[in-house]
Amino acid sequence: MTFFLPETVAGKVAIGSEVRLVLDAVPQYVIPAKVSFVDSTAQFTPKAVETTSERRKLVFRSKAQIDPELLRKYRTQVKTGLPGVAYVRLEATLPWPQDLQVKLPQ
């Protein structure tokens, strides 16, 4: 999943940092992932982002990758390109909040 980090936090995010993905189509699930890319060049927020004030800010394009084993396990349910929200944990020693604990289909 591609997401955008504000310039104020982009420098704090390392490749491999933990991410939680919540997809618009299935908001009851929380999917674990890891940061796989953070662009080295800032850009203005894409027009698809909600508000004009948000679009004026500089951001860094980033990507989160789901573990390939997890993708294989749920391959019949996986759909590419679904919109959602990526939550990045900046401090690895802090636990995820309860609402961002991993929740996958049974």
Give structural notes:
The protein has one domain: Elongation Factor Tu (Ef-tu), domain 3 (Beta Barrel), CATH 2.40.30. The longest helix is centred in the middle third of the chain and has 6 residues, at 68-73. The two termini are 23 Å apart. Helices cover 13% and strands 32% of the residues. A hairpin with a 7-residue loop joins strand 2 and strand 3. The protein contains 3 helices and 6 strands; from the N terminus they run βαβββαβαβ. It comes from Candidatus Accumulibacter appositus. This is Putative efflux pump membrane fusion protein. One of its GO terms (cellular component) is plasma membrane.
Question: What does this entry show, briefly?
Answer:
This protein has 106 residues and is an alpha+beta fold. It has 3 helices and 6 strands; from the N terminus they run βαβββαβαβ.
Shape descriptor reads globular
Percent of residues in helices comes to 10-25%
The number of helical segments is 3
**CATH architecture assignment name:** Beta Barrel
Structural class: alpha+beta
**Rg of Cα set:** 14 Å
Number of domains: 1
Any idea of the CATH topology?
Elongation Factor Tu (Ef-tu), domain 3
The helix-strand sequence is EHEEEHEHE
Q: Which range does the strand content fall in? A: 25-35%
pLDDT averaged over residues: 89
Query: How many beta strands in the DSSP annotation?
Result: 6
Residue runs with pLDDT of under 50 for 5 or more positions:
none
How far from one another are the termini? 23 Å
The main β sheet shows up as: 6 strands, antiparallel
What is the C-level CATH assignment? Mainly Beta
GO cellular component, one term: plasma membrane
Protein name: Putative efflux pump membrane fusion protein
